[in-house]
């Protein structure tokens, strides 16, 4: 019981040691419109037809994403493998001149790091051959 009273006393006797240091430098109001308010105003001012068109464009962009590169289409089935193995052309040393990897060593980074994902490239709207 005494512990509870001590805790309550300490909670109510704590002073806030915050201090207002005033304003240093220039203070400016935010001159931008709130983005959500802007969107609400834009949608309220546009017609239903325009809203439907925008919605269809968004749906289409999700169904047919643009990758930024044109991958192209294949004419026949093909699988390819990548081997990133390198042969070291000169000694690789650390900051103390200690050799970490000797010249002529063969190094495959995929043997030291795990890659658990497979990469599948697919054009969702295109029929397969």
How would you characterize the overall build of this protein?
With 129 residues, this protein is mainly alpha-helical. The chain has a domain of 45 residues. It is built from four helices and four strands; from the N terminus they run αααββββα. Strands 1-4 form a two-stranded antiparallel ribbon. A hairpin with a 5-residue loop joins strand 2 and strand 3. The N and C termini lie far apart (80 Å).
Question: What would the keywords be for this entry?
Answer:
two-stranded antiparallel sheet, mainly alpha
Q: What does this entry show, briefly?
A:
This protein has 129 residues and is mainly α.
List the topology elements:
Blueprint: H1 2-13, H2 35-45, H3 48-63, E1 86-87, E2 92-93, E3 99-101, E4 106-107, H4 109-112
Antiparallel strand pairs: 1-4, 2-3
Largest beta sheet, briefly?
A: 2 strands, antiparallel
Secondary-structure element order, N to C:
HHHEEEEH
- Please report the distance between the alpha carbons of the first and last residues: 80 Å
Total helices: the number is 4
In terms of structural class, how would the helical and strand content be classed? mainly alpha
Query: Roughly what fraction of the amino acids lie in strands?
Result: 5-15%
Instruction: Calculate the mean pLDDT score and round it.
Output: 80
Radius of gyration over C-alpha positions, nearest whole angstrom? 32 Å
Major sheet: arrangement of strands: 1-4
Report helical residue fraction. Answer: 25-40%
Q: What's the total number of strands?
A: 4
């Amino acid at each position: 019981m005494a512990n509870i009273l001590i805790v309550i006393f300490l909670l109510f006797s704590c002073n806030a040691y915050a201090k207002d240091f005033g304003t240093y430098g220039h203070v400016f109001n935010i001159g931008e419109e709130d983005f959500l308010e802007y969107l609400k105003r834009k949608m309220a001012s546009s017609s239903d037809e325009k809203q439907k068109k925008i919605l269809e464009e968004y749906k289409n962009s999700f169904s047919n994403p643009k990758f930024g590169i044109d991958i192209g289409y294949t004419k026949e089935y093909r699988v390819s493998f990548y081997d990133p193995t390198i042969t070291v052309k000169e000694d690789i040393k650390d900051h103390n001149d200690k050799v970490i990897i000797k010249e002529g060593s063969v190094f495959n980074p995929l043997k030291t790091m795990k890659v658990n994902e497979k990469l599948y490239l697919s054009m969702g709207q295109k029929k397969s051959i």
